[in-house]
Amino acid sequence: MSELGTKEVPVPEAVPKTEKDLAPMNEENLDDYDARPDHPSEEDFQTLRRVHGRIPLKAFTIAFIELCERFSYYGTIVVYSNFINFSLPDGSDGGNPNTGAGGPSAEARSGALGMGQRAAQGITTFNQFWQYFMPLFGAYVADEYWGRYKTISAALAIDILGHFILIISAIPPVITKPDSSLATLIIGILVIGFGTGGFKPNISPLIIEQLPEKHFYVKTLESGERVIVDPQVTINRVYNWFYMFINIGALVGQIGMVYAEKYVGFYLSFTLPTIMLCLCPAVMWWGRRQYDRRPPSGSVLKKAVRTFSLAQKGRWSFNPYRTWKNMHDGTFWEHVKPSYLRNTNTTVPSWMTFDDGFVDELRRGFAACAVFLYYPIYWLTYSQLNSNLTAQAGTMRLNGLPNDIMTNLDPFALIILIPICDFIIYPGLRKMNIHFTPIKRITAGFLTGAAAMVYAAVLQHYIYQGACGNHPVDRIDSGECDFVDINVWIQTPAYVLIALSEIFASITSLEYAYTKAPKSMRSMVQAVALFMTAISSALGEAFVHLSEDPLLIWNYGVFGVMAFAAGAIFWFQFRDLDREEDRLNDLPEGKIQMGSSDEEKVHPTA
Q: Is Ribonucleoprotein set as a keyword in this record (predicted)?
């Protein structure tokens, strides 16, 4: 964006050193960073290969916590639809279909409340919105009051309580009373939302804070090759594996709990995720002396909002074009720096107890939030996994598979593709000196998501050409025709393309939220990124009328065109940020003076 400017940061020439000669950049030697001879020169940035730094074991324990939490989340929500939609089967007191000694047949369905598809869709949509809205609250608590470690620990306790409430909703004395079971289920969903809200925006910044190297430096490998140790490459690698842990938890949780629901009952499909979740506090307890824990930064959010408001002063006009020009004239942030106010004899507000470096961090953080504003369009394509693509599978030849099992192709593909990207594709591009920067990756994510929708639209066209015509769902359910003679595995490319788009867009959003946020607002910026999923859920309601025959080709086509257009506009708007990537990642850390008892002490914003 134009207000970020293009000013280059002068750096000293790099002197070849071995890895043993110089310690990596960290918080202890940060003050001497600019004077260190191992800082890359401009020529180094253009010519040297980039490599990742050291990743400590404790970072993987945080990824394991995320695995357990996502197992509990996805393993639970995967059975919500059946629980709400279908009635309790005759003779069952757990929700599992009871068909005699032979057990449930392949066509038998579990159920509990019998409220119908509309109620199931409404409650599950609310649950998704709630789970991705609450991180705004959890991020605020972490950044302002408790810090990430304490907030995560408290959130896990609340989350576990919510899961125990879900178990109660499914035990025989309760599940046989639909009103009581529904009320208990809703309470459980609300409580889990508070837990998820405190957990999700804080766990991903916490894992990166365990990395010892914070800035670029040059080292010489044993082969004699000089390389740049790039923290961004390290962060990208960590988030790739972090995301793979998420999908391992989701894959095992979803598959396992579907069968637990069908063959035992809903109480088991709620109990097993709770047991997995209970492993998390034990790991957090182990890490209480192992993890690097940043303290909360007080009223930094208020200062950020006030600074942003002050920057807009005098820039608004009744002429929209004039307003846009005023906002993008390159002085938006420069004119609210304390040094500028002093040099122009302008009164510095009493709340402006920070330096110019903090304003630079704010500029970078607000730019990141602008990047995330495009994500609701991307999530519309991703959301087809558990809705329309699942229904599409139900119209084709399944060969004994349940149609909702196909959605697991996405996490399965991710588990395969993430190591391929991490070990082969990304290092290969770096060896060719091709910088596949975050803005490029996000753009690629939009385009691959669009390609998945185009493929689904073409496949839907061929389904409509089958014996069931353009109303296959109704005609198959009524027995007028058999399943369309297309093997369901032909859906695989759509799921693989969506998985690839996640690697480019979703993983990069975690990375971008961390690296571009002010040190004191990382949880909040991460919550803004997560909140885009909630906005996407609300936006998706406007397209519900396309989610039925004979309009499904239009459904996939519209989402494909929207994703492609959003990706193109996204690149056009943010390509300047792409050129400034290294400078933005290497900004010096700003300082801010804390209030009350810390009036005389100046702290880094971390």
A: no
